[in-house]
Structure prediction request, 502 residues.
Amino acid sequence: MERKVIDTGPRVVLRNWFNKPFDDAIAAARTCYSSRVISTEEVTEKQRKNIGKSTYEGGHHTIFQHATFEFAIEGVSRNLVHELHSHPFYNTSQSSQRYVKLKEVRATILPLKGRNLKIYKDGITRAWERYDELTEILLKKLIEIQEKKPTERQIKALEKKAIESARYVIPLAAHVSMVHTLNGITLFRLNKLRMSGNVPWESNIVISKMVEQVKKIDPLFFERFEDPIPMKETLEYKFYEKFKQFVSRKIVEKFDESLEGYRSKLVDWKINAEKIMADAIRHVMGMSDIDDEALDFVLNPKKNPYLTEKLNLSTVSPLMRTMNHPHFTFRKKISHSCDAQDQRHRMTPASRPMMIFSDVEKPDYITPTFIKETAEANKIFDEWMKEVWEIKNTLVSNGVKLEFANYILPNAQALRFEESGSLLNLWHKWVLRLCTRSQREIWEVSREEVEQVKKVQPKLVEYLGPKCFLRKIAGIKPYCPEGELTCGKPIWDTYPEMEYIG
Prediction:
């Protein structure tokens, strides 16, 4: 039976919100000039008109951050979600391709016609066929390498490991469902720059739906504010138009050469970071003449109980905020799939590429390690990468905009960019991603990053490792806090030499 692409279209529902968000902002503004807190019931029409306009135009935008909007969003592409997650001011809980098998071909159908639409839809369905093939092959291998015949429950767990790698062939057009929460000023920003990213067609549709949902519960919130900037007037488009003669396909080769074999290469750091952090610790506490001892007190889990807390307390602790001073920049080449994990660490920002202006004609992808290790799967994977790039190139040759042609590309697509972060935020990211239950590619990349930092500033990462490693140092049992989700191996004794378990 022929499989069809199911596209329900984007569905955006505002499911939770502040009561009277615009009046709430005006009341907050009035509170700044009052000896008491002003309530929304006290806001007048004159104040709505005058205070709303003057605060916005004067750049006093924090009053619009109080209002928070929670959206239920379905029927949108992974391409769009990657765009929505490329800034730090949001929260998302979304369906995971690691844990949810993609049984139906659900994907965004683009505004194409005739032959191009058929080429696109056929490519989507064939990608799902490769996904099913790879899942079956990888699951079979996982069952074979078990010491004893697995139970049905264990087979289901193994299938999740199989689809983690198989999903690399799924196209960026694949649908996702999520709960997406942001505040008022972030929605203003997204609305104004909705045409500036890699998916202007889809983001224009979805963000306009988000705005319309807010207007339904409070028409005043968007009534007096700015319209979106047309695509051709965005900074990114103007830059491309001015300098497009410098576009070079060699940039990819130069980037890859600069990595010198790494997937994430440390390219910059504060050379005096260890001393500066030690100074900061002493200055916070009003002390002198302790450097190594100061660093050890903050970074050693045996002495700093905050490092093993369930809650990340680092941004609130006066001493741990000194970890903001060491800073590192990495040049990275990872898959779109891996970056979907990486970008969720909002406080380690990256400058991700404008794929809408940059066409890579040759297959350009990352192969998951498990697929590399499985000859039959690797052959199917490589053949599909060649085929899917041919589909993309055909669409472009047929006059389809690169923005649309890129939707057919797979999760395996390589992304190249620079990413920076403080020790405080990288520490949090690395502790989570060094756990072998993490997605394998981000685990491997995190290992590379930490090992490079060890070479230049070893004191800062002497005690860094997965959560179980920190808890072992601190003497907190059980060492693994994951309960039934534990990998079941004594990683705390073998880190950093241990192998990936998944």
Notes: The CA atoms of residues 62 and 185 lie 8 Å apart. The domain at 11-95+175-242 is CATH 3.30.1360.170 (Gyrase A; domain 2). The chain has a mean pLDDT of 95. Strands lie at 11-17, 68-77, 91-94, 175-183, 264-269, 327-335, 350-351, 414-422.
